Protein 1
Amino acid sequence: MSLPDALHILLVEDEPGDALLVQHTLRAASGGHCNVTWAGSLAEARERLAEQPMDLILLDLSLPDSAGLATVTAARNAARDTPVVVLTGHDDPEFALKVLEAGAQDYLVKGGFDGDALMRAMRHARVRAQLEARLTQSQQRLELALAGADLGLWDWHLPSGEITINARTVEMLGYPLAEFDSTADHWQGLVHPDDLTARQDARTAHLQGEQPFYEAEYRLHHRTGSWIWVFDRGRVVERDPYGAPLRMVGTLLDITERRSAEQALKESETKFRSYVESAPIAVLVTDADGHYQEVNSAAVALLGYSREQLLALTFDDIVPDRGRLAARSYFQRVKEEGRADGEYQLQRSDGALFWAAIHAVRLSDGRLMAFKQDVSERRRADQELRIAATAFESQEGMLVTDLHGAILRVNRAFCELTGYQPHEVIGHTPAILNSGRQPPSFYTEMWRQLERDGYWQGEIWNRRKNGDIYPEWLTITAVTGPEGGVTHYVGAFSDITDRKEAEERIRSLAFYDPLTGLPNRRLLHDRLRQALASSSRNSRHGALMFLDLDHFKTLNDTRGHDVGDQLLVEVARRIASCLRERDTVARMGGDEFVVMLEDLHSEPAVAAAQAEGVAEKIQQALAEPYRFNLPADRQDEPLEEEYHCTSSVGLSLFMENSDNLDELLKRSDVAMYQAKAAGRNTVRFFDPRMQAALEARAATEAELRRAADRNELRLHYQVQVDANHRVVGAEALLRWAHPSRGLVQPNDLIPLAEETGLIIPIGLWVLRSACEQLRRWQGHPATRQLTLAVNVSPRQFRQADFVQQVRTLLEESGTDPSRLKLELTESLVLHDIDDTIGKMRQLRGIGVNFSMDDFGTGYSSLSYLRQLPLDQLKIDRSFVRDLNSDPNDAAIVQTIISMGHILGLTVVAEGVETAAQQQFLVRNGCQIFQGFLFGEPQPIERFEQTALRQGALPYTSH
């Protein structure tokens, strides 16, 4: 390999043999294109370089007058632009790196290269020297550009904290370059304390890759003690192989003058804004598109928006729809002509409209400034003047009289309403219209109010020319003169015949039942309030009778609502026929009627007898046959049908002035339901004990709803044993630890929970608690084989997601499903046999066991027992109790046990209380026993202390 042109090469080598070898290698490799000059020392090399420029230096580092890295430095100083290739006997990579850092372009080990390697090294050295020269030129141009832009330059080596800066950077701070400490810590100390956090956040965001550049404006401490503002911008230019930043480069610009100018401008704007803000007229500034950018307090007050709300609006937003087109045209005129005036309707934040006089100008930056003032009052005054000219010819009848009441003028509507022509009434007083219905005192009071207030308004009856009397709404206004005295009266009136008729219809709808025409609940309340006051004042009893038709729903369902309505109308008529004129019958809705009897005897017993007599009379009347006309489309039935109806009546007496009308009605309602419970077609008086029981039940229900949240629910456990008295499991029984009533038993708790629907969340709590208890038992050898039976409510079992609920509880608790036994009643199973079997099989598939609870008390059929995936039959305690004394119970128990064996089911007997009972059961093949003989239901602590001691149940004969 050879170089393209002849090169002048200086070989600096003190060993002649090595020098000859290198020269020979060069001549052979270059084909004679290298002119080699030999120097034996560094001093001789300097002389040769002074005599003639060289293209390249081959340099040995061990010379008589120099050695090591200093030789490289000396050679570069002697010929700064000449590339150097070091020839040395040291084969050490670290030393080679130091040689290159000292300025050499390449590095060869003696004896380890041939001609081609030497030529490549020389060529690479020349190329690298050219690149370094270009880089130097580029750096010089950069320095010139930075100087022209007045920019400081910094180069930060992050691992070491060293920062390389140019002269302009320290000039900004008033330091000579040689005196400036260019470390990161020193630079940090120059930053104003208030700006440290923002500068650090900006730098961190860039270093973490969140921002492409690092940019920050902050203050630096000048050498004179003042502060200068700088704009600092840079970016990471080098990272390690793992992506961590190693080096950042950036520029620094002194922006102190710009910040000072900005501050001055800000102060000027602040003054201007204060003038605008204090202006008494609304000032608003928008951009060219109408978006509000500035508003003053007067604008906020005028438009009713907050300042923030206004700045989110446009000019269109405060203009009503119907005026938007004209307002936009005005807005465009301001932009084109530079200014414009006008009056436009605007809309406040509450929707209220007002008129505003607007003067707007276009500012130099293209924005628009508008001055707005509310001129609604002026426009309203103008409008009133225009209206006054036409108001007299309105649809209302109008007349003007003098101070003494003589008619001076009437309008066309007056003539149309009264039938009189102007010449027939002018000069007369309004008394010409008098109907005679109002007494003289009415007019006396009218004039007294006119003189006092200058105004009267009210309803009056007047007479037309043809004699018709009609109601009118009349307004009379006194007109005063400049001195304050009355000069005229103006009357305006309208015919309110239609309104009066509508009011009467509304009153009828509001207070009367539209079907029967009887008073409704509202009117009954009014009359009952009056009756209470009268009863209290006269010390005489009244009575409330709540009446409900028996089986009315059946009639509606079978014969339709039309027939039902016929019955209700006839019932209303018959009840009313049994009452005195002062009594009241009302329809409350549906088939419920209320009768209010007044002025009964002062003695309660006598009053009760009177009320009962009326109730029986009503019942007799209602019991008479009814004949209904059937719909015409029912051709297969007779046109008339006979129907018999009975009623249940609840009665309560009153003799008090009470505001609690609902309570009085409720007493009769309770008594009526008591009558229904007694078999219907009967009369019952209100029983305070029944009411107390209902209130107690309502209170208990409310407390039960909060029982779970208050941690008042408990589980007690009753042991189950085999024939050898070994504990095989337990049944979990719910208790309620009431804070005042103590432990509430299931007989009082479960029915209430079932009726109210609370059994669903309570049942879920029981299942969750049982699963958690089974999980605890699984952790101990003495209890891990126990089963736990849980009663499942029908409402709980019929939930669509019941199977998923059980699965979730088992999974969350980590309980072995085979240890859980769900007890179902026969009534639950029979409700929907297909759904029951489906749910049981799903749960049976994951290992859950099932027991038929209270077996024998329901419809015990082999046909469905064979279909159910049961594990146990549980003999009801009612059969176990008397099996030693009642042959029938003994036979039933034997049959149940035999049936269980035939079906392959375990038989459990509950309610075992005596040894004799257990012995009978054992003899007949019963496997599992539960009852007071073995243990009463106990809290878990006592259960585990007694029943589970050593895995056996302590047994004593009772």
Protein 2
Amino acid sequence: MPKKKTAIDTYNKQKDSLNKLWVLIMNDVSAQQYQTIRSMDDETKEKYNLPKGREKIDEKTKENAKLSDKLKNVFLQEYTPEKIKEAHDIFALAMTKIAIEVGKEKKDIMDRLPDEVDENGFRLTDEENARIKGMKADYLINNAGFMGINLIQAHQTQYMDILEAVENGEYIDQENVQRKNGKGNMQDVYFSEKKINEQTTFQEFFFKMDFNNETQNEYLEMYKAKAGDNLFDTIRKNIESKKPGKIATEKEIINQIKGDIPSFMMKSMWDTKISEIRTGLSVKEREYYDYGMNTRRQYEVPKELKDWVKTTGKSLANSLFVDNTIKSVKKVDKLVQSEKIFELQRDSGINEALFNTAGGKDESNMSSLISTMEATGKGEGFFHKENSDKYNKMLDSMKKYEKALKERRGGDAKDIREEMVKNCLNYIDGKYSLRDKSFSQTRFDCAMSVLSHEMKEEDFKRILNDVNKKRGLSKGNEETPNFVSKRYYENYIKDRLDEYRKKEITKISKQQKATQNNRTQMPQNEAELFANIENLYGKKPVKPQGKKADIISDEAFSKLQIIDNDFGAIGKRNPDSKLSDKDFVAVAYAGSLTPDALNEGGIRSTQLSGEQLVNQKGGEYTTNLVSKTQSSSIDKYTEVINKGRQKAAEAFTSYEKGDKAPLANLLCNGIKHIVDQTSRSETLNSEIFAQAEIASRIIEMFKRDKELGKYAERDGLTEEEAQYANSLKSQAKIYKKGLEARNKLKSADDANMTPEEKTEMITDILMEKMAEASIRKCNKAKESDPRYIKDMKSAVKNFEKSEKEYKSNPDSPNLNEMKDRRDYYEYKMFEIEGKYRVKNEFFKEMNKVSNYNLVRDVVKEEVVKAKLQEKGISQIKKELTNGQIVKQVSSLYVQETRVIAPKKKAKIKTNVKAKANDNKAKAKAPNGRQP
């Protein structure tokens, strides 16, 4: 084991107070765990290579405790009563991290526990199932050696110890600081500085102390007072009511008010910060956070769990205890006793909370200054042909900072900002006199503008004084053109920003205009069917007409409520940019594919979980609307669609207020469901148009607002899923062209088709066949997997058994439960299909237009080489049914490598190079013509 002193090294290497506190908490956890190890028998200690004697463990525990005091002392030196809010904030951030860690632990335990069933063996409702499993998880967290509970306890201990010390002004090595400053402890400081006196009302007191509403209400309730009541009079009555006949002195009244300040101030700051942080978490992190915050400590077994604890819980906790404890010890010791730097500020939830303080600026400021500097090129003049290293470093760090702001990486932004400020200072050094070259002055002013925005005001003032002094200017010369001030650089940024935004307006308008149109090309009849989705999921529902008009009855349709709200557009927008109906439809579609929407819409199952039920039933009220083969009524799902639309409206309302997590969660959910559905398909079919359209709209939302993508990633959206969803557009394109070509072939006549037209038609049909070959290859790979075969065989057997039971007992009182059980086994087959699916590289490659064109060129070459275009229509039909050309083209697809077989790769490479040279030649020639 490394010597414990390395924990001090680890502590000292932390850049901010949050990470320092985390080291402190982790060290306390380590101390607690060694106390636990002390009680283990020697055989266990030997098995895990731990010190055997109690003395050694006690020594280890004492070392930990001693170090905790040492670290705490170092930590306390950084705080004064004036910095109490910062201390509070970092404890709230640390608690967020702890709650998420405990929540993950709890969720993992709940997922591994079997579902709860009633006396008949049927699964309980989702809510009841989660409640009981949650109680069991709380028991195990408290009794099975998990790290989470130790984290909570260590945090609570440090929180109370440190804040109490800060409140009372107990500074290590600064014992006389309050006396020297003429200030007392926190209560004295706040009472005098806030000027609380006999005229102060409760309302004024709350305002001065910055209490939030919840704390105000608690305080008023404690004294049974109203906001307008006089503070001193109410406290006097309170003191006197406890001792009849007593007359309260002014000193007693003041002391009672002072005594209330710390606890209520702490509570107000804590609740405010915790609420703010929770808002910044992704939906998935909020789920973990809520699990963690609701985890019971000092656990007492509820009555309904006592039998489980006796029969299963206690033995399960005992079997996990030692292993969990040892893993926990090793994990904590590795962090605390090594010199590894903690990366707490990179944690996504913490990072989001840090963003406003670490780098929460409008990145447009930085973008405008960067574009202004880039417009200077490499400078000008005989002596300045290349940019200096100082300039390059400064510009590079500005770009990194801009990127961190765009991606909302608060922790990174904080570090990069320090580097950028340093590089800007380095660049302006020696350049204070007025620059005689236009590019030099522009760059200097841009660097100074960055510093004016990012440095402390007093530090920047010193630079301004030095610059003006160097230019021979002083106070009184403010109107001189070369005089610089804070206002000068504020206006400089504003002017650059105005120019930048004017350029952006055209780009933004074009981007938002595109949201008014479909993203996927569809044949006319498919577009008519897709209109059913647009009509039913839109803000103002329209009763379907024409094909499938009977999909919903008048009565059911009347239940779809109008959403009368013009939400702002997603992403960058002009003030008049409103959310398009098409974007709303996509989010409402995704919102309807949630367990909440199904549950609130009255669709439930005794066997399937909410998520499983969505996957099982989702198609019945989404793709069923565009399916030619299914035309059953969706009346029973009307309320589900309504809930999806309401969820979309709620998400957009939150988005308008700056909370992007709910919208991102719906988008993530929609993409995942569409990927699940489409990736299980055995072939391309007409449903691809609707799925591709919704997926494309969502992907475009991620592109317009990068933060939505970040939140979706936190909610579990993988890069593979996003890529596959993006590829649906190319699948739809291939299917559309193939469909149109097949329809053309049906009515084709040798007399009215040229060889060139035949070539194009045959090529599009073969492209579709190549795509289907890629699907077959993936399915074949999946179906030959021994694990798939084994799992599917078992699922089919169970399904057939439940199907037989359901059909043979039509009068059973448990018919619905039997049907739910049959649905469950049917879903298990569906789940296995997804679990073992093989990634389709072909569609990923086809998503690039250049790849699509190159592959189509190769297929076209094969058609020309086979001279199919010279044959008659009847012969072409025959060849495209089972001819050699189909096998040949299908074999061009290679799943394991890239788009087509290696023998064709060289040709494609040559084609790409030839086209690139071609384009270069065109660009050099006048009017783009070839020379």
Protein 3
Amino acid sequence: MMGLLQGCSSPFFILPILTTFLLSVFLIHKQKQAKAAKEFHEEQLRRFSALQVLSAGISGASDLKQLGDQALSGVLHALNIHDGYAILLVPRTLDSDFFVAHRLPDPAMAEILRGPLRSYLASSAERWGSLVVFPDLLRPNLNADWPRDPIFPQFREFFSAQGARTLLVAGLHSQEKSRGALLVGSQESREFSPEEIRLTVALANQVAVAIENRSLRKTAERHEDDLRVLHRVVDSLRTTFDLQAQIQTLQRELQGFLGSAQLALSYQDSAEGPLITVTGTVPQESKNGRNAQGIEGLVQYVLDSGTPLVISEDFLGTVRKLGIASVDPRIMSWAGVPIQFSDKTSGVLTITDNSQEDRVSGRRFGLLKVLAGEVAVAIENARLFQQEQKRAGHLALLNELTRKATAVLDPQELLDHICGELHKSFNFELVRVETLDREKEELVVAAEVGYGPSIVGRRTKFGQGFAGITAETQEPHLADDVLTSDRYLPFHPGVRSALHLPMKYRQELMAVLSIESLRPKSFSSQDVLTLSTLADQLAIALKNAQAYQVAQEQAITDGLTSLKTHRFFMQAVDGEWRRSPRSGKPFSLIMMDLDGFKQLNERQGHLEGDKVLTAVARVLEASSRQSNTVARYGGDQFALLVPEAAAEQAQSLAERLRANLGADSYLSGRGVTASFGIGTFPVHGVTPEEIVRVAESGMYLAKHEKGNRVRVASHSQETSTTGWDQQLLQAYLGVAVKRMFATGPEVFNQYLARFEAATGVNGDSASLMDTVTALAFTIDAKDHYTQGHSQSVSRLAAQIGQEVGLTKDELEEIRLAGILHDIGKIGVPEIILNKPSGLTPEEYELMKSHTTLGERILAPLKFKAIEAIKKIVRHHHERMDGKGYPDGLTGEDIPLGARIITIADCYDTIISDRSYKKASPLEEALEELRRGRGTQFDAKLLDAFLNSLAAALPPRRGATARLEVN
């Protein structure tokens, strides 16, 4: 070229060549510039396209993990980094534990997550802005550039250890909030072009926007979820009025964000009442000043301040700063929101978590505050409903306790019952009842539950202690904290609150009911009202029980002699009979009957007789041991039960009693003596009835032998049982005849029992027939109007029998039936037998019963003829027309003997004087009989009787009377 130029030295020649060269260079340069521009635009387009694709990928990511993976892959590709790594961190407040890294070893990832670097890197945008580039992390004086950042050396050391030479940190900003940081590290020292930096910032903004959008979406979703939960909770709460069920519903519905946290409601029934905590399990009251969950102090703090409280970390330190004591140290996080109720009381809705800090911060606490308003309404309704239920339950319980109490008629049993029921039904720890000793002006503990039996019988003066104040003022006394009063008298350690109620019947104080608790403020105003009403009702029951006890004491005490009654004596005998076999000791009975007492009454009058009975009772009591039971057995008969006494000891006592009666000047001056009988278990029998029968028998034997002696009615081996029983029965009957014994149901039962006992098991009772006949004569002899009636009926009946041709045996049956036909009158009360005027319908029905009673008393006799005689006795008041009694038999259904006795009985009654009528003349009597021919009397038998009368002697008595059958 130089040669060419040298050869072409002419300027005109050189200039075109130079121009051509320069133009060529220019063209080449232009081509290079165009190519470079084209490549730049293509790179920009590529990067823009990559950014668009990356943005679309980030926006369409289904979760943060995918978003992070997309962003990190994109930035590494865009920056053309093959020897480095990328990290994306998001603060915990946005998404718990979100961290993504590409090409970072697992140990390094773990170190970030568990150390302070996590929060340091996530919040780097707040310190360094949108972008910071560390071109050389190995530069020696790099730490000196960050003197006020104590974490920076650790930050530099960590990334240097990972081989990073150059580090780019892009902050994730959105709406003036830090959303985390994007970090890109390279093992080469390199500079990032403005385009790369702009691309990285744009990518970081895209990630921040995506996170922001996702956060907004999640916030909206959570808000919608919260609204759904809120509506669901409110709807669920409205389905029940049970507080515990409502808390269970809240716990269940909020389980999604509560996790292991425990929801609870703490509230007071009244402003002065104890704090009650309701959980999803069972209600728990505070005990000894500490709530069962260990949160009472926190709840009280919220109640007093009236503001919500949340402790999400450093629980114990925060609690100490607040000055709250007595908390459960296991609690990790806690939140409480106050609730106000319409009755001026407050509550606190709480969340307690023992497993994790920060459980109830942020959204959870916010929802809890929103929920508290809705919950307050539902819980208010539930509380009102429960209060009404409690009031209704208390009223029902009051009625039930009153009903049970009125059924208990023993005062001591009633007081024990009151304490037991109050303890069980109201769940009170300590209950006692103190009765009054008015003479000493003292209260006496009569019954208790919870204190221990040692306090029973403890006495306090009126006005002493709270119970004494109640007794003095007769007004309820409530102590919410007994320790604040120096007038409290402790009956049990640990008592904190007490309620003392007067039990008044009208204006009379019956007792003091004391209810004490180990907890302060245990008694609400409703409790006081309910228990006061109950105390009044129980006072009525106590009054009734005491009145019944007095009446019962009177019922077992003879009003004249103040000795025990016959009924009490027999119960005592039965009790001793049951005890004696267990103790192996015998017991004896002494029966005593006054001699000649009836005659004394007739001579000197009943007032004097009563004085004699009282004097005898005084002697008997003075001569007996305290363990003996002395009773008025009936009329002028007395009885003694002597425990652990053999027959010889009882006989000695009876002799001493007999001597003491004789030594009494008042009794001896009136000639009063007594006959005694002895019966001993098990010598004289194995049942109480047998012992009483033997003792009575001895008494009657003594009386039969002129009295004033002691007899033991025990037969010898030489005497047959039948003969011995016959002897006893004759003695009894002899005494009865002498005393002109009474009639009536009790007398009937006594004779029936004696006849049944006398026949024994051998069935040989023929020897008793004379005794039964004598009894029939005795019944006739009670009234001079009826003396000889049975013999007359027997004679007239035999007269009819002979007329109609009865056999000799049949005539004997008729004669005996005539004697016995009215023996049943022994069971008819004397007032009816001897009534001087006509009988009332009721009295006539009792009189008619003598036919069936006669059959019953003959039943124990066991010989052939007695069966026919019993039927005659039963049916001797039947009529031919069926209008008779007791069975309304007609015609020949009536036994022949009964038809004969009917005629003889009526005839003798017509022609005899009675207390209510005069005797009728013979002709009138016969006319009366003829009017009953065929209706009342058997026509053939009546005709035979009339024929026999014509041939017989005149009747033994004659007078005027009209026909009237008795």
